[in-house]
Design goal:
The complex is a heterodimer of chains A (119) and B (110). With 119 residues, chain A is an all-beta fold. Helix content of chain A is 0%, strand content 51%. Classes of the chains: A mainly beta (119), B mainly beta (110).
Chain lengths: 119, 110
């Protein structure tokens, strides 16, 4: 069965960077896009962008452009999300989700990774 | 200003029918299908409806979706206590060239 397993919770100081991983299994990793979505405490879901694991193409939400980087390791079926210049406003649950390209169809989600930013 | 708007809350008694609305614009709901996600407390969202009115396998047929113009609705028939959750609509936006989510509706089963 399709599974997306994310790395564990992180605590970071303001100004630092964080890198979250998302290991895929149960399907061909290069056949579907990986989207990243975050949810601040008590807030709505917020789409950050997506990566095409087949060719490394990335699309970032304008809000995060310049601060976020998506990468992937096809040999290990792992996608990564790195966010820099962290502030307290980046404290959130970060999800990876397998999606159908150029749609909002996110059929499978990781369990989420809590990133806390505090001095 | 969020691109997709939902009422913050909805409620109904067990067995009743509840509808949740989602309002958008020409660049999202007006030209792309809507998805609905159910999020139970402390868990990842789960795809409930895709392509406006399709259910993934395992989703009960009590859940149904529809869309007209730039508005969409999720209907839940025969409300059950386990339906108590947050519900989000989502669509692709052609101007943003990305996914947009509604603000979420918290459903309470009375």
């Amino acid at each position: 069965q399709v599974q997306l397993v994310q790395s564990g919770a992180e605590v970071k100081k303001p100004g630092a960077s964080v890198k979250v991983s998302c290991k895929a299994s149960g399907y061909t990793f290069t056949s579907y896009g990986i989207n990243w979505v975050r949810q601040a405490p008590g807030q709505r879901l917020e789409w950050m962008g997506w990566i095409n694991p087949a060719n490394g193409y990335t699309k970032y939400s304008q809000k995060f452009q310049g601060r976020v980087t998506f990468t992937r390791d096809t040999s290990a079926s792992v996608a990564y999300m790195e966010l820099s210049g962290l502030t307290s406003g980046d404290t959130a649950l970060y999800f990876c989700a397998r999606g159908v390209v150029v749609t909002a169809r996110l059929h499978h989600w990781g369990q989420g990774t809590l990133v806390s930013v505090s001095s | 200003q969020p691109l997709l708007s939902q009422p913050p809350s909805a409620s109904g008694a067990p067995g009743q029918r509840v509808t949740i609305s989602c309002s958008g614009g020409s660049s999202n709901l007006g030209s792309n299908p809507v998805q609905w996600y159910q999020q139970l407390p402390g868990t990842a969202p789960k795809l409930l409806i895709f392509n406006t009115n399709m259910r993934p396998s395992g989703v009960p047929d009590r859940f149904s979706g529809s869309k007209s113009g730039t508005s969409a609705s999720l209907a839940i028939n025969g409300l059950q206590s386990e339906d108590e959750a947050d519900y989000y609509c989502a669509s692709w936006d052609d101007i943003m060239n990305g996914v947009v989510f509604g603000g979420g509706t918290k459903l309470t089963v009375l």
